[in-house]
Each structure stands twice: as C-alpha cells, then as structure tokens.
Design a protein that fits this description.
about 80 residues; mainly alpha; 3 helices; about 60% helix; about 0% strand; flat
Length: about 80
C-alpha cells in the first residue's frame, strides 16, 4: 500500500470515529432534535415509488414510534389523585 493511500485510509477512519462520536453526543444532549433529524432524513426514503432497498434504509433510519398514552398523549398524570 502506498504512503498516500495509507494516509487517506487513516484520515477516513479518524473522520468516521469523529462523526460517530459527534452523533452520540448529539443524541445525548438533544434527543428531541436528533429524533426530528432522523424523521426528516427517513421520510423522503420511505415514500411510494422508491426502490425496496431505499425504503428499507429509510425504515432503519426512522426512530421507533413513540407510545401514545391514554387520550391526550400527555404525562399520564391527569385526573383526580387519591390522597
């Protein structure tokens, strides 16, 4: 392997490690923004007419659906409390 190819490979590995690290920190610090970003990236991929492999990628990128609570989807702390 030439020195130029070796250096390029090294830079690619470092860039991948930095990108993964940045994504982990982003998800920890701003989970709602990370969820919105994943939805925005996945929506164009899962549309009808896209190839099956592209829709499968979109489904992998999309976050899990959030569980909806009773009627309002709120905090489940509605109604009278037993004291």
């Amino acid at each position: 392997m030439s020195p130029q190819a070796s250096l390029t490979l090294q830079y690619l590995i470092v860039a991948l490690a930095v990108a993964v690290s940045a994504w982990v920190v982003f998800r920890k610090q701003a989970p709602a923004a990370a969820r919105r970003l994943r939805i925005a990236l996945a929506l164009p991929l899962v549309r009808e007419g896209r190839p099956a492999w592209l829709r499968a990628c979109g489904r992998r990128i999309a976050p899990m659906p959030m569980a909806v609570a009773d009627g309002c989807g709120g905090c489940n702390d509605c109604g009278p409390r037993d004291r």
